Amino acid sequence: MRHERDLGLETRDLELIIAIDEAGSILGAAGTLHVAQPALSRRLQRIEDDLGLRLFARDRHGAVSTAAGRAVITSARAALGAVRGVTSTARDAREGIRGVIRLGTTPTLGADVLPGILAEHHRSHPDLRIELEVSGNSPDLIGKLGRGSLDCVVAVRPRLVAPYVRMAAQGGQPFAVVCPSDLPAARQDPIPGPLLAEVEFVSVPTGQGLRELLDEVLASVGAVPRIGIETSEREMLVPLAAAGFGAILVPRTFAEQRRVEGLVVRDLDPPVTRPIGVFVRKGRLDPLVRTLTDLFTPDVWI
Fold first, then answer.
1. Most Cβ neighbours (<10 Å): which of 43, 81, 248, 291?
2. Which of 165, 177, 150, 13 lies closest to 79, judged by CA?
3. In terms of Cα–Cα distance, which of 183, 216, 217 is closest to 200?
């Protein structure tokens, strides 16, 4: 039984086989490849010896592929095409032209900051695809970045940044209170922080970013939130507030985009701005990811 061994064919070997087939002679292929004919003949002999079959029938008139040779040449063309495809893809990725970016973000940032960024990115890089993962848990998103399942994360800045990530950009997300217009606290704009202790709120569940911020704001005035109703669906926050279940603390852009009759948008005193970061893995920044992070200039946070 004949044992197969590693043939070690190189790209130049594939090019040689194809060139001989196309030229119809070793002399013609030598001219195409700019190689001396004797050297090319020796290389062809080595390839045939490695493969254990004759690829070309050679005589003084030229070189004609054998039946076995035609099968090998077909595979050689496919293999060379695949190699060139890899090279082309690598070049496009290096230049930020083609590929996939796995982006993680929180729901409100996804609705607030990202639409304009992603639209601009698509206009300038139409062949780059964004795979978006949304979660209200910023630490979990940053953890996935560290594990390599995400390439970039736009999320709330943690107090301690994990050692495996760095911030490529940072900014702030201004917040406001949306509340029924007949609420006593709504008579003031901005609403003084201590008045929030008297307000009932509609909120997302404990452990999610919006709830953590609400807890922090109330803790700063020595209180805990009075929760009228909880919902994990952010698009229900405004309707529930309009139905009389309480006020909501949400990004100002989110509030402005969802104005409803009977509700008013009020700033806070002192102002509440959530720190935001654009996170990437430490080390050399991937060229595809850079095409996205470069768009997070200071004015996108305003």
1. 248
2. 13
3. 183
pLDDT at position 202, please?
96
Residue 176: in which H helix or E strand, if any?
strand 165-180
Helix%, strand%, coil% for the chain, nearest 5: 45, 25, 30
Does residue 199 lie in a domain region?
A: yes
Look at residue 268 and give its three-state secondary structure. Answer: strand
Distance CA 132, CA 78 (A): 34
**Helices H, strands E: what count in the chain?**
11, 13
Indicate the pTM of the whole model: 0.68
Please report, as a single letter, which amino acid is at residue 141: L
Are residues 164 and 20 located together in one domain of the fold?
no
Q: For residue 284, give the amino acid letter.
A: R
Average pLDDT score over residue span 64-71 = 87
Q: Is the pLDDT of residue 7 over 70?
A: no
> According to the model, what pLDDT value does residue 3 have?
45
Report the length, in residues, of the chain. 302
Check whether the bond before 184 is cis (ω within 30° of 0): no
Instruction: Give the structural domain span for 294.
Output: 99-171+275-301
Q: Are 3 and 52 in contact (CB under 8 A)?
A: no
Average predicted confidence (pLDDT) for the chain? 89
Query: Regarding beta strands 263-266 and 165-180, do their DSSP bridges make them parallel or antiparallel, or are they unpaired?
Result: antiparallel
Question: Structural domain tally of the chain?
Answer: 3
Distance (Å, whole) CA 150 – CA 264: 38
Dist. CA 286–CA 288, nearest whole Å: 6
Question: Would you say residue 283 lies in a domain?
Answer: yes
Which sign does the torsion angle of CA 293, 294, 297, 302 carry? negative
Give yes or no for residue 89 having a pLDDT over 80.
Answer: no
